[in-house]
Design brief:
CATH architecture of the largest domain: 4-Layer Sandwich
Radius of gyration: 19 Å
Structural class: alpha+beta
Number of helices: 7
Helix content: 10-25%
Strand order of the largest sheet: 1-2-3-5-4
Strand content: 25-35%
Number of domains: 2
CATH class of the largest domain: Alpha Beta
Distance between the termini: 5 Å
Length: 343
């Protein structure tokens, strides 16, 4: 183990498509243009998203597609995340083979989607469902933007009937690069007022100077005065010391997981922005080849790594999407963030 070797990419969840999957192609092309991708790249994004959306529409149960913006200081990109409740893909390698189109319509197939994308990954459980993530970066401009995966990724999804999500997450490196800090916030209730609290928490965390989880929660507490308030969790991952520091207020679920274990992290009662008891930071050893998972109560806590074989072999965005697919509910805002670095 050593210093942080993971990369961080800012992301913004733009739009979920569920009942109107055919609209995703046009929305993807428009988003790619707004993000600054050239016309050829915009066309490739639209083609890939159309193939994914058509597969969901024709073959999946309860399929949904998310369009996201990805940003680094040097590059911008678009990511599509798709998830469904079945039937799953029995042979992913075969599904990726050239000429194998599961729709019989576009005919470009998942293999071509994978080639068009800069990052591409699928996790599927036959009979239970599939998660797919494909990222498309600008191919012009400054070099140095990551074409690989971020070591931390999260997803947010508003409850059914709402346009905005009251849950938010953020991540940043410590000033000296020795640690990664991760925050997840659940604004009380749902709708625009909850979203304002979530946005204020994320902004306070991103611009804050706190190094410890306790101090970061205090900064967020001050920023949320005058809002509905929120429940918040902050973790500090220190690979060199082989440890994680955690401070949580309220019912954010937090766990360190390995392939077959899940160690729950303890939070204290309270509402950030209103009333908190004395903050406590807990120290935990980092599990080798494991991950940190934080999620709001828009996901049930009744999940286990044992139910998701091989999941930790996949990038954080796919792990997060699979947990949302597996444990998420549409009756509340939902957010999940996963940190999986080389510690």
């Amino acid at each position: 183990m050593g210093q942080v070797t993971t990369s961080l990419v800012d992301s913004e969840d733009v739009a979920w498509f569920r009942d109107e999957l055919t609209a995703a192609r046009g929305a993807a092309a428009a988003l790619a243009r707004r993000t600054g991708l050239d016309e050829d790249r915009c066309a490739e994004v639209a083609l890939a998203v159309s193939e994914v959306a058509t597969n969901l529409d024709k073959h999946a149960r309860d399929g949904a597609l998310l369009l996201r913006v990805l940003r680094t200081p040097l590059r911008a990109g678009v990511e599509v995340v798709a998830l469904d409740q079945g039937p799953g893909i029995a042979d992913v390698a075969e599904a990726m083979r050239d000429g194998n189109s599961s729709t019989g319509t576009l005919g470009i197939g998942l293999g071509a989607v994978g080639r068009l994308a800069d990052t591409f990954d699928i996790y599927s459980l036959p009979g239970r469902g599939t998660v797919l993530a494909a990222g498309f970066w600008s191919r012009t401009g400054a070099d140095g933007g990551p074409r690989g995966r971020s070591g931390v990724a999260g997803l947010t999804r508003p409850m059914a009937g709402e346009q905005v999500c009251g849950d938010a997450w953020s991540t940043r490196l410590d000033d000296d690069g020795s640690a990664v800090l991760v925050m997840l916030c659940d604004g009380l209730g749902h709708g625009p007022m909850a979203a304002l609290a979530g946005q204020a928490a994320a902004q306070a965390f991103r611009t804050g100077r706190a190094r410890s989880p306790e101090d970061a929660v205090q900064e967020i507490h001050r920023a949320l005065r005058g809002t509905r308030g929120a429940v918040v969790a902050v973790a500090r991952i220190e690979p060199e010391r082989e440890r994680l520091l955690f401070c949580g207020i309220g019912n954010i679920a937090a766990a360190l997981i390995s392939a077959d274990t899940r160690a729950t992290l303890v939070s204290s009662p309270g509402i950030v922005g209103h009333q908190m008891r004395t903050l406590r930071t807990f120290e935990h050893p980092l599990p080798r080849d494991g991950a940190l998972v934080l999620h709001s109560d828009g996901l049930s806590e009744r999940w286990s790594p044992r139910d998701l074989p091989g999941l930790l072999q996949h990038p954080p965005v796919v792990i997060a999407a699979q947990l949302l697919r597996h444990a998420g509910t549409h009756r509340d805002d939902a957010a999940v963030v996963v940190a999986r670095g080389q510690w």
